[in-house]
Amino acid sequence: MNKPTAREGATPLRGRNIKTIVNAGLARRHAAERRFRWYGLIAISLGLAFVVLMFANIIGKGSPAFWQTYIRVPISFDAAALDPEGKRDPQALASADYAALVRAGLRQMFPAVEGRLPLRALSALTSSDAAYELQRRVQDNPGLIGTQQEVWLLASAAVDTFVKGNIDRSLPEAERPLKDSQIEWIDQLRAAGKIERQFNAVLFRNGDSREPEQAGIRGALMGSFFTLVVTFLLSFPIGVATAVYLEEFAPKNRWTDIIEVNINNLAAVPSIVFGLLGLAVFINFFGLPRSAPLVGGLVLSLMTLPVIIIAGRAALTSVPPSIREAALGMGASKLQMVGHHVLPLAMPGMLTGSIIGMARALGESAPLLMIGMVAFIVDVPKNFLDPSTVLPVQIYLWSDLPERAFVERTSAAIMVLLAFMILMNGLAILLRKRFERRW
Amino acid sequence: MAISHEAHTVKQFDVQLANLRNMVLEMGGLVEDQIKCAIAALDQEDLSAAREVIARDRIINGLQVKADEDCVSIIALRQPLGSDLRTIMSLANSVTDLERIGDSAKKIARMTLQMYDGANSPPSGKLLRDVRPIAELASGMLRGCLDALARLDVGKALSIIHNDDELDQEFQSALRRLITYMMEDPRTIGHAINVVFIIKALERIGDHCTNIAEHIVYLVEGKNIQQRRNIDMSTILTLAQDETEKGIKE
Amino acid sequence: MSTTAIDTQVALNGALNRNAPLRQSAGVQVTDYENRQTVGKITVDNPKMVCREVNVHYGQKHAIKNVSLDIGANEVIAFIGPSGCGKSTFLRCLNRMNDTIPTARVTGQIKLDDDDIHAKEIDVVQLRARVGMVFQKPNPFPKSIYENVAYGPRIHGMVNTKAELDDLVRESLERAGLIKEVEKRMLEPGTSLSGGQQQRLCIARAIAVNPEVILMDEPCSALDPIATAKIEELIDELRENYTIVIVTHSMQQAARVSQRTAYFHLGDLIEIGDTDQIFTNPRHKLTEDYITGRFG
Fold first, then answer.
1. The CATH homologous superfamily of the domain defined by B11-249
2. Which residue segments constitute the domains of chain A, with CATH numbers given?
3. C20: which chain B residues are within 8 Å (Cβ-Cβ)?
4. Could you report the predicted ipTM of this complex, rounded to two decimals?
5. Over the Cα atoms of chain A, what is R_g?
6. Which residues of chain A have a CB within 8 Å of the CB of C201?
7. What are the DSSP calls for C24-39, one per residue?
8. Mutation test of the interface with chain A: which of C130, C133, C192, choosing the one with the most A Cβ atoms within 10 A?
9. Any chain C CB within 8 A of the CB of B223?
10. Is A327 on the interface with C (CB under 8 A)?
């Protein structure tokens, strides 16, 4: 019964030195391990490289869009031209010819310019929005009438592009959007310090526009906001209730199995199919308005529900059974058990799942194309039924346009979208870290 | 009976139990030999053999200490329950009884030395006549005991308890005879008392054997039959006392 | 040398089996492994719970087979047996915790005092308030110590005012021997306590609703010996007011805390009896094999 004999008898390795056997294979094992580490490292660096490339590209293209060129123009708010009757009648003020003021201002700066065509070229330096800008100012402050002001006016997209260095002045005149004379004026303005790049508030203030310098993402942002509100209000309560019922209350039988399989399948259905469903059911059958955030929200709810339900069920199953047993053992009813113990513990997980689902909904465009949220909409939507579009769709629309300024804005919109995505995911992580209980 | 013949899951436990049992049986054999030698020394008036018996008692005491230590360590390390617990308790108690039996053998040897020390005339043969049958009864019981312990034989153990009554009666009648001798010839009183001690020691051996037999019954059956026996013993003793008193009065 | 020792042992044990039948004086001795009848007296003079012919099926598996036993008032009864023998399953029948397992089916009669716990008029919520439970792993709610103890009285509506609740919480913690350790940290989470303290918190939580019976499912299996000793001492004190049923893997623990012991094997109640009798002189060979470590 003495041990060494027993061991030697039991092992076929008797008489061989375990140490040398193990050592012989050790180098190979270590090499395999090192190789594997390298594969992982290469994969990760590749992924990171792509991410960096993407961000660099987008930021490089998009960041200039946050700055916009303005021209300082002396404007004389001539009472005779604006308000010949002197009544300060808003109607009259609105219909006055502000474009003429802009033109006059520009001519004042370049008195040498003569002739119809050169003059038109001169006034093309400013955006068509310049006139509206003056109108807004006068309407806000009628006291301006009769005064002489220097006003920063929005430059046209071509000037903006040129100032940002994206137009090659060595190109033949016919191949670039700016004439030689215009370039000369710009140089003069620049020398006089009368041309300047300012923060592009227009981007966040305006809806879509055909003129790139006037196009903003406000409409799309509001559309996304309304849509997501609808999505969250619908999918979170329904999703949580479904998850709780299926996980805690439903009997385990064939029917619940079928439901479960279907929910899992729904999560994998291509999102455009939900768009078609929304079109058929909400718009054609229920007659809800097209392009409305309400319908968009409904469609996105259909899409996010399975995600929330699956995440919710996972969160519920991760609550240790000992807590359930403890509650039941105390004589808590099933609802008390769920309400007092299980749900509070599962909530961070459920919220995380929901936020990630919402982030996905925020980035979704395909189903919304189907329900008409792809329209060109200038007005910023004010409620759930106003026609609107959403950020990803806006990006899609802009990416189609050829102007250099729109390319810039596409990237800028992508940056805004990404910022929101990161914000939402960050919130999810924060929630999980904050409320996750250790037990 | 509720003792399993299956091996323990922990094999070392089986080994320890077997070792303990072997040690007790070895000690029993030694004690048996001691009695045989002590009686032989008395028979043959062999003083050196008697001294040897006295010397060898140390070995038995040593074995007892060792066996007790083993019992304690098994209890501490294995926390025995059920039959294992009973085995250990019975063996531990039996060891004590065996050691006492060894002491009895030593006492006989000592009496032998005292009687044949040469200072007095040796005792007459009739005084010692009763020692041999009583000694045979006693060592028979011890042998039976060890046998029953080795085989965990309850039937044998019970028959030993029964045998003790016979030994007691033999002792009583021997005692009565010695009293008669002493009354007849007061000069024999000195030797007679030594002989009384010897047969008393043999009678004690019977009692210890009875105890061991009881331990065996407890080990196997889980029943303590000692209580009932004690009552029997006390009645027997009272009866014996009465007899003796009667004898003295006569 | 050791091999010889084992041989001797086997020979000794072999000799044993050849013995003639003994003269019997007390009780039956069962030497037959196939005999699955319960050995020992299942009834008590003063029963708190009476179980008769209880059967539990988990789907196809017959987990508890015809078990009948009484649980005496103010006694600690221990259920022992190898893993999977059904002792925990049987324990969970006593407060119908098996109801939570969809495939479990319990038949037979279980009475608490004179009420059949499966009767329609006994709601499971009421039953579990009367028969509390302490689990293997300390499972305090992830709430404060105070909230843990206050939970039961609160959901059952046992107190009306905050002051009453405070008193009840204090008293329960006191009876669970925890008050000194947690007095100053009532609002800290229950999970911040040590394992043994958590288990005593769970006991405090269970006794806060003043149950009649407390079921303990291996309450010390996750604890160190000192925490175990404290729980055992607590069990002994609680016996004065409650009836306690304890499932344990430790035979020493069963021996230390219980007055009666029941041995389960493969769903059968093999033997039941006074604890000292079970552990010194079991009557069934299966019990003997189990307690002496000869199992399997």
1. Phosphate transport system protein phou homolog 2; domain 2 (1.20.58.220)
2. 66-199 (no CATH), 218-435 (1.10.3720.10)
3. 155
4. 0.81
5. 33
6. none
7. P-SS--B--TT--SPB
8. C133
9. yes
10. yes
Contact C79, C264 (CB under 8 A): yes
Task: Determine the distance in angstroms separating the CA of A344 from the nearest CA of chain C, rounded to an integer.
Answer: 10
CATH (domain of C205) = 3.40.50.300
Please answer whether residues C55 and C64 qualify as being in contact, where contact means their C-beta atoms are separated by less than 8 angstroms.
Answer: yes
B226 close contact with C: CB closer than 8 A: no
| Beta carbon pairs, A and C, within 8 Å | 67
- What amino acid occupies position A51? V
Domain region containing C122? 36-45+72-104+114-291
The reported pLDDT for the residue numbered C222 is 83
Domain annotation covers residue C56: no
C14 contacts in B (CB within 8 Å)? 5
Beta bridge partners of A300: none
Question: How far from the centroid of its chain's Cα atoms is residue B107's Cα?
Answer: 12
Residue C294 has pLDDT above 90, yes or no: no
Model-level pTM? 0.74
Cβ neighbours of C87 (radius 10 Å): 28
Residue B21 above 80 pLDDT?
A: yes
Q: B19 is written with which tokens?
A: 């070792």
Q: Give the DSSP per-residue string, A155-217.
A: BPHHHHHHHTT-S-TTS-GGGSSS-HHHHHHHHHHHHHT-EEEEE-HHHHH----SSGGG--S
CA closest to A333 among chain C residues: C125
Within a domain: C28: no
Q: For A264-283, what is each residue's pLDDT tens digit?
A: 998 889 989 999 999 999 99
Express each pLDDT in C114-171 by its tens digit.
Answer: 889 988 888 888 899 999 999 988 999 988 999 999 999 989 888 889 999 999 999 9
* Structural domain count, chain C: 1
pLDDT in tens, C238-254: 999 999 999 998 888 99
Distance from CA of C205 to the nearest CA of A (A): 8
| pLDDT of amino acid A10 | 54
**CB–CB of B5 and C292 under 8 A?**
no
Q: What count of Cα atoms within 13 Å lies in the side-chain half-sphere of residue A408? A: 23
Q: Does C124 fall in a domain?
A: yes
Higher pLDDT among residues B189 and B246, named by residue: B189
In this prediction, residues C276-284 reach a mean pLDDT of: 89
B215 vs C contacts (CB less than 8 Å): none
- What's the N-to-C CA distance of chain A in angstroms? 47
Q: Give the pairing type, strands C131-134 and C268-274.
A: unpaired
Radius of gyration of chain C (CA): 21
Taking CA atoms, what residue in C is nearest to A435? C142
Give the C-alpha distances (Å, rounded to integers) separating A82 from A22, A86, A135, A386: 97, 9, 10, 35
The chain C residue lying nearest A248, using CA atoms, is C100
Distance from CA of B81 to the nearest CA of C (A): 5
Domain boundaries, chain B: 11-249
Q: Which member of C5, C20, C251 has the closest CB to residue B15?
A: C5
- On whether residue C125 sits in a domain, the answer given is yes
| Structure token pair of residue A354 | 């929901």
- In chain C, what residues touch A325 (CB-CB under 8 Å)? 97, 100, 133, 135, 139
Q: Which of C22, C25, C292 sits opposite B84 (nearest CB)?
A: C292
Q: What is the pLDDT of residue C21?
A: 35
